[in-house]
Amino acid sequence: MFTLSDIHTAEHEIKRSRFIAFAGPVSDEAAAKAFIAEHSDGNANHNCWAWRLAQNYRFSDDGEPSGTAGKPILQAIDGQDLDGVAVVVARWFGGTLLGSGGLIRAYGGTAAECLRLAPKSRLIAMTALSVTLRFADLAVVKARISAIADSQIVSEVFTDTGARLDVRVPRDYAADMIALVTDLTAGRAVFEDLDR
């Protein structure tokens, strides 16, 4: 699964109608609505859009025949295995009717090309954990956690006997990391799942 790294645009002219797509990353529904508002053009005849956030999604045909704009844009998002993405396709009517199939191809194709060319980053499901350690175990545990791809030590707080590390690790590797740190510390490390 991927998301977009930045906002990207693409433009097509089809039978004198102009289509411009704007695609960008969004973190929640409010951000998706703000993206749509910001990238909709009041001078365009239609501002059709779609967004996907995990299992949540919305789309709008903005006056085009039902199912000819918003849904093809959403299918372009899903077809490229994207999440946390919003797309707006603005259309300026050129005088020639495109028909339902033509609209589906125009909106879906413009969105798909925009998304295909946009810079992407891989989405990794992360788990937030806290681990409490003795001073004697701290250096080796920090080195091992830092060596795990995509992991991050978010904070380090010192106590009278050691430290508490708040870490983010890929969810698929969390159980292995806990087992590794437990072995390294001979069972002295205490874990807390911060996602609960």
From TrEMBL:
Organism: Rhizobium oryzicola
A Pfam family this chain is assigned to: Impact_N
Record SUPFAM superfamilies: EF-G C-terminal domain-like, Ribosomal protein S5 domain 2-like
InterPro entries linked to this entry: EFG_III/V, Impact, Impact_N, Impact_N_sf, Ribosomal_Su5_D2-typ_SF, UPF0029_Impact_CS
Lineage: Bacteria, Pseudomonadati, Pseudomonadota, Alphaproteobacteria, Hyphomicrobiales
Domain of life (superkingdom): Bacteria
Protein name: YigZ family protein
Family recorded in the similarity comment: Belongs to the IMPACT family.
Domain Impact N-terminal, residue spans: 15-115
